[in-house]
Amino acid sequence: ANYGPNPICKGCLSCSKDNGCIRCQHKLFFFLRREGMRQYGECLHSCPSGYYGLRTPDMNRCSRCRIENCDSCFSRDFCTKCKTGFYSHRGRCFRGCPAGFAALEELMECVEGCEVGQWSEWGTCSRNNKTCGFKWGLETRTRQIVKKPAKDTIQCPTIAESRRCKMAMRHCPGGRRPAKTKDKKKKKKNLMERAQKQHSIFLATDKTSQ
Prior knowledge:
Number of strands: 16
Oligomer: single chain
InterPro entries: Furin_repeat, Growth_fac_rcpt_cys_sf, R-spondin, Rspo_Fu-CRD_dom, TSP1_rpt, TSP1_rpt_sf
Order of helices and strands: EEEEEEEEEEEEEEEEH
Pfam families: Furin-like_2 (PF15913)
Helix content: 10-25%
Shape: rod-shaped
Strand content: 35-45%
CATH architecture of the largest domain: Single Sheet
Distance between the termini: 147 Å
CATH topology of the largest domain: TSP-1 type 1 repeat
GO cellular component, one term: extracellular region
GO molecular function, one term: heparin binding
Family: Belongs to the R-spondin family.
Number of helices: 1
């Protein structure tokens, strides 16, 4: 029988004009629907969003999921699908995945992520593989991958980073100074050769004038 616009007595073993289904047929779930101040029973093949099917010897019922932001659940305390914008992790729903887990966007689930160790100490300040000869250089620190991610699509965090640093020794011992000395000797030699050439020209001119 139908009461009002909705076939509220469909699947019922017993039904009330005011309260709808009171008892459901075998295998169907009793769901108490609320609309404003009114509530009535329905018999459904599967429970609506936010509820799960609880089978009992007396009568199967739809029970509300007690997990926050859950769209559908397997039991009272285990969510199988979270609401839009939330990630599912071990039967719970999160805005962001817990530490050590990464978000799998296509499934909106949290899976085991990439675990990395602690950062090492900053390395020696260097530039062009030299620790002297420049005012500024770079120092680097690293960390190791302790556990690879469960999915290849999940990237590991950065395992090496560098920063600008000031070198302790700007001038290399025995490095540039000998080069400067060599340049001075070369300049001195060139001056001597030029002086000798000018002296030869002067002598030749003097003989001609005589």
